[in-house]
């Protein structure tokens, strides 16, 4: 299985390798339920890493952008689209949800795609933002609501607290409390060593906090102020601060309060040295204004320290009420510290060592692993059930007739049939023969748009702007039910018209399909839902082993010698399609009996064909089965310079029948044919005379379509 993991931790990178101590642990933790991981995380560019190299073998890192101001939020849908494009590759998803819009965005995308997702609630969004800054206070209600919202539909959740986060951000589905804190098993003599230390006489008790020293919501300044109050009472305690940062602000606070001789800023310590440091500490204090379930408190408890902490988040789950204070309350801190004696130190040493045993790695890992495996097994079962259940695809069209959008819908339905989906066409009746053909293919045809019909579908394709407008009242309910509403852009719109249309597309639809590279820049600018490229493909009607008999029958019907080179042109006869140039090219070979020219189509320029007196030209009018005539031909000329050409299906058909092809240079023709395009009819004549006509181009056929559909529509193979 392939896991998409949205992580709240960041990694360091030098451009080649990635470094992170906590993320390494997480990758191995979640790797027990998957074979490969795509990890979405923040990245810090560095020259000298401060963490260990991540050596997990099957992980790909993608960078998460920062959403730290209102302007950055304008790119919300663009970022979500990019995440969705990678998320669709995966079978399951794990998201660390906290304050980040990236995490909730990922959770939303997974739900919309129907990908099983497990949420790990790593902290309180409200506390994290409210205690951050003035800007944070403005954002706090939004992130609080956002986290509550995603937890309402979280099917699986792991909370890092026992009770606090569960109550603040509840889920009605499956969840466990399992801290991210993991401790090694304590040595047998740890309590004895602690008691001996307490009994040793000392001038001052040693107090400590492990936290970044430049982050004011960690609250060390309140402890420093409490030291000043204690000194006034004749009580002195040392306060040791371990953590990264300059500590300039805390030094000023200590100096202002006259306790700089009691405050020691030790800087950051390697985690391997933390336990040894805590063994020298009498009192551990966590004065934070926001936390999840602080690792440092549990580590201090495991070493027998008396622990004091603010009454926030998961801290009350760890400590006795007697040792809790309101965050930022200097008087309460001083009162608790002043009352501590040897008996309390001994009593709390026994209690804390015992409670910390609940956070031993072996216990937590087993609990977490069991829940993760349950999540994986149920996800696998869901995937299997989804594959066994026949899903429905609905095509919203203007008319049931033989037209461009209708034929695209027909080709899509043929591919979906191969993948086990049933197709329904909804449109106004126009052609009985086309309807009959659809029903013979096994597809249903309906003439009324009803909400019940929509609810029966899993994927809803919108093939016109008219039907887009008809969906406005229903789209929200359909999206909530998990229906993917997909808009396919069949027509080339001007910039201003597409800009207006895009507002409706972004509201009504969940996905956008671009059928041609020509519209890439326009779509990137205006479309904010996930965009996928599926080049318009053609499903061949005939197998290769039928080609010889088809070619023989067609040539006999047209009275074309078997050894003659047949050169074909097909188009709607209107300016820009190249009919005049084709006739001029045919005229250049009017005396060459080895070449014969075939024209299929109809339209306003038909008079050009009717006025033609060339004996080497055959005109067959508009035909439904163009493929059979392509099979009978040797060379196909595509001479269109039509400015609104999105993606020429006639050219795709010719490619799929393995024709030799000559085409004029345009951006889209170059995309389909590579460098094998020409600039004028004179160039065409030259190639025909030299018999240097290229062939065997990349096909956009059933094989191509199945591969793209599996990716875009998250269609799983049997496990």
- Radius of gyration (Å): 35 Å
- CATH fold-type name of the largest domain: Rossmann fold
- Summed over residues and divided by their number, the pLDDT gives a mean of 87
Please count the beta strands (DSSP E, at least 2 residues each): 26
- Class of secondary structure makeup: alpha/beta
Explain how this protein is built.
- The radius of gyration is 35 Å and the shape is elongated.
- It contains 29 helices and 26 strands.
- It folds into four domains: 2-177, Glycogen Phosphorylase B (Rossmann fold, 3-Layer(aba) Sandwich); 190-354, Rossmann fold (3-Layer(aba) Sandwich); 390-533, UDP-N-acetylmuramoyl-L-alanine:D-glutamate ligase (3-Layer(aba) Sandwich), CATH 3.40.1190; 544-701, Glycogen Phosphorylase B (Rossmann fold, 3-Layer(aba) Sandwich), CATH 3.40.50.2000.
- Helices cover 41% and strands 20% of the residues.
- By secondary structure, it is an alpha/beta fold.
- The longest helix has 28 residues, at 361-388.
- The strands form four sheets. Strands 1, 2, 3, 4, 5, 6, 7 and 8 form an eight-stranded mixed sheet that branches. A seven-stranded parallel sheet has the order 17-16-15-18-19-20-21, sandwiched between helices. Strands 11-10-9-12-13-14 form a six-stranded parallel sheet, sandwiched between helices.
- The mean pLDDT is 87.
- It starts with a strand and ends in a 7-residue tail after the last helix.
- Helix 15 (404-418) crosses helix 29 (702-712).
- Strand 5 (92-97), helix 3 and strand 6 form a beta-alpha-beta unit.
